[in-house]
């Protein structure tokens, strides 16, 4: 990452970086509204302290947006909910601690949907404020998409990193479940919740993941050639709109032209049942994880959140156990399906960001990969009628390094070019 290298070399100061990003925030956030909490004096004080001690960490000077469901001891963590507004945790989440230890700079807290579920916050899409930025990691995606941060932390239980990354024209990386520790993050579903990263490039995501996962070997080395890519029309594929279809067609042509082998993989008959399995796993786990919020009169929630929880509460223990068994059995079948390819290429979202701010879009093309706990990466593919749309790169579970290397090669072939909205 050029910025962190310049900060370590002393050619760029953390204070100058912070001032530049605060200026960008002042210019863009009145429209985008990506920030839940921002204190310019606080982050400038941190930047001055970093300058004084001489930044040498891997994330030196990196401006970071932390999703409002991730704990920060020195900034409020309100989970996107009015009853928790202003709450100060006693410690940082591990991902925040490790970022700061690597000399990253937390600019502030980014907007989350309520409890990282369905009820939208105030954030607008940076490319068109009449459209949703997606959710639940809306603020982080929009902040990076609008050039107000270089890294955004998100979380994904269904499609909350991959889908909004596509809507906001950024890279979204959901690692293998468990690669980044989720302690001190508001839990929805322990079998599904994954901390994700929103960045400008795949290389940036790999760098940050290597630090947070304490796995230096995640960083791809060299140029990958001759990828074997399985084009996967995630069922129900009839939900793919013209923007997504154009992105997949463009990717197919560009990757074939770059010397990679793209073949269409058949979608097994059982695959569509993975959506129901995800619903049952999430439903059973979220109603326990949010038992206090769901049952306590002390917590005020939107009607959308209450309705969402009420719908999830109908999942029985028997249905939950059967869904976990389905996941384990079909994860092995999926591994067999992928035996002759390096990664899958699939839709990241049904289409460009939908008009309206009352909903965050459909995670239908994301939930299976979250259920199977596989690494997935949104790579921006093209602009469709002026709006960004990405494709999703999916790798085998625990094969994050290989998946990141493949996504970096796919990114190069697509040649989208990053520009802030």
TrEMBL record:
Residues 17-404 form the Amidase domain. It comes from the Bacteria. One of its GO terms (molecular function) is catalytic activity. PANTHER family: GLUTAMYL-TRNA(GLN) AMIDOTRANSFERASE SUBUNIT A, TRANSAMIDASE. This is Amidase domain-containing protein. It comes from Paenirhodobacter enshiensis. The lineage of its organism: Bacteria, Pseudomonadati, Pseudomonadota, Alphaproteobacteria, Rhodobacterales.
